[in-house]
Design brief:
Blueprint (H helix, E strand, L loop, with lengths): L1 E5 L3 H12 L3 E5 L3 H8 L10 H8 L4 E4 L2 H5 L3 E4 L5 E2 L2 E2 L2 H14 L7 E4 L7 H14 L8 E4 L9 H6 L4 E5 L2 H10 L8 E4 L1 H32 L4 H9 L5 E4 L2 E4 L17 H14 L5 H12 L1 H11 L7 E5 L14 H11 L3 E5 L9 H6 L2 E3 L2 H5 L4 E4 L9 H5 L5 E4 L11 E4 L3
Parallel strand pairs: 1-2, 1-4, 2-3, 4-7, 7-8, 9-10, 13-14, 13-16, 14-15, 16-17, 17-18
Antiparallel strand pairs: 5-6, 8-9, 11-12
Helix pairs in contact: 1-3, 5-6, 9-11, 9-12, 11-12, 13-14
Length: 441
Amino acid sequence: MRVGVVGAGYVGLVTGACLAELGHQVTVADVDSARIDAVSAGRSPIHELGLSELLQRNLGSRFHATTDVAAAAAADLVLIAVGTPLRAGEMDPTALLAAVSEVGRAWRGRTDYPVLAVKSTVVPGTTDRVVAPALEAAAAGRAGVDFGVGVNPEFLTEGQALADFMSPDRIVIGANEGATVEVLESLYKVFPTVPLIRTNTRTAEMVKYASNALLATMISFSNEIANIGVAVGGVDVVEVMEGVHASRYLSWSDQGEVRVAPIASYLMAGCGYGGSCLPKDVQALAALARRTGEDPRLLDAVTAVNAAQPGRLLEILGQELLSLRGAKITVLGLAFKPDTGDTRESPALAIIGPLLDAGARVIAHDPVVTAGEVPELVAAGLVVTANLAEAIAEADAVVLVTPWDDYRGLAKIIGDRRPLVVDGRRFLDGHAFFRYRGIGL
């Protein structure tokens, strides 16, 4: 199938590269010429394991990159994968509308019933109320008559996005007429055993939000349990969650070996979630609820708990150090999670800012993120180094925020020195350090 993808970010680029690998003819378009230049040279502009190799294998044959949206719009199926950020607390459809309108203008005069599917995360009702009318106006045609409009949400986890796409746990297709469903089903016919959920556009949009809201809720729930345990005293949240994970709802015995469901990884305490999805999606869904007259008490609480969680690390530092002013504090990890270079809504940023404001000397290390990706913090005094030993040298405190594998050997690097080690992910062996404090302990 000829597939066009508009947007070469995490979702669009991974989707396009994987569809090409599966045998489709793919054209990915993006307005960012530097990004397209990198992709055309076989270099992934984002840190995603295996993506550059996938691009190189398919470039020039089944995969093409361009700044010309009309070239992508010439396909049989166009997937919209542009960003839908928060603005004033609500989902901003600006980039979405621009992409859809450009596709529509390129479709004027077409008679072969092309299909547009929204992969961007959009609040329920967006495709019906915003996308379809914009496409109709730009294309001078009618949805369901001259072209199809549908929803095909993505379920990709940064750091393992290629594996998620090539081995999906579900495929959701939202459309209000059969021809669009048939086109989207054909796109994924290589996955005959994967659960296929066919529904209308609004339900498909809600599946994505419900999925992300569930994960965010599990994280905030775990953090609230951790904080209550600390207040009570004598409670270790890691052991609490081990007991929770042992429930038959979350684990089972497979030939004598206990296996834990992957979703249990979200039932672990830490210093909060970040990234481009969970924070904005929970808030956007809550904003939608308020517009409809509903009171999203649970969603608001999830966001509030998460927003406060990085502050727990600051509290520990304040309790353990005589003063933050002049203290050398090393922050390990700038990305919001390991195996990605994405710093959006990273808890590390919420910690570094207040430390600098308090007069601390802050140095950060991340295996992927460089100083150029956090310019505002660097301007405020943050030092970013690629040398881990240099980062922790003479530190008064070392704060682990992102559980990169590079940090498993932290105790050996510290040696016989005795800085305070604050574990924001309960990732380290606390017994290996002279002074250790961890979330939920």
